[in-house]
Amino acid sequence: MNMRSILRFGAKICFVRRKLVFDARLDQIPNVTARTPVTFRFGDASDLLRLSEGTHDYDTAATRFSLDRLLAGDRLVIAESAIGPRDEVLFYAWLMFGQLDLGVGKYLPLAPDSVYSYRLFTAASHRGKKLCAAYFTFIREQLEAEGHRRLLCWVESRNLISRRVHEAAGFHSIGCIWHIQFLFRSYFYVPKTLRASLRRSHAEHTSAALAAGAGASRV
Ligand SMILES: CC(C)(COP(=O)(O)OP(=O)(O)OC[C@H]1O[C@@H](n2cnc3c(N)ncnc32)[C@H](O)[C@@H]1OP(=O)(O)O)[C@@H](O)C(=O)NCCC(=O)NCCS
Fold this sequence. Notes:
By secondary structure, this protein is α+β, with helices and mostly antiparallel strands. Helices cover about 35% and strands about 35% of the residues. The protein is built from 8 helices and 10 strands.
């Protein structure tokens, strides 16, 4: 084992990371069409098994976790080429209801009208073609029809591309979660105000904003 691999292993088991929590009102997500012809749809277990380690960064542990999440009610969204062979998944993402997953089996409760979007991935050969932006348009239509109002997610602060993609899709940051990994244990610091914001419904957010506006105009 050389110095570089020792350092890499150390950075894997001991780190401090910031997860930026993003929030978007579904009705503020813009209409975007992908720059390559694709069809979005919800996937099932057989679609999940098409995700490979090489093309989709999906290893056996991820597949096992996702099979459990499918049974728990999470939904897989996939995009396939609308012109070429339909055997390749060009994009996938997941939706979770009622809770936001911090990884390592820890969850934060969400308002019933909010949905958590996670594990977004575009195949490397198709990045920059607005597949991710078009995914938000697809789920906006589906989720609004079911009565949902807000979409939430978290992005590692160092993932600048993902931050940009979310901001362009109408998301704004509502706080940050500190993730401390020490040896093989994960610890999270979630500010109380952020927990409360995640639990508030869209209607509660709107009335709080109106009350704050009324207070400001009285000053
Ligand atoms: C984040 C990710 C899903 C975005 O998917 P995408 O389909 O390429 O997204 P879009 O095409 O809608 O937008 C990509 C943006 O990144 C920019 N970009 C920067 N570097 C890029 C690169 N190397 N390749 C492609 N796009 C790049 C594009 O120009 C575009 O910005 P623009 O709208 O200002 O032009 C994709 O980069 C990915 O799968 N990354 C690895 C996994 C990941 O980080 N997932 C997010 C977890 S929160």
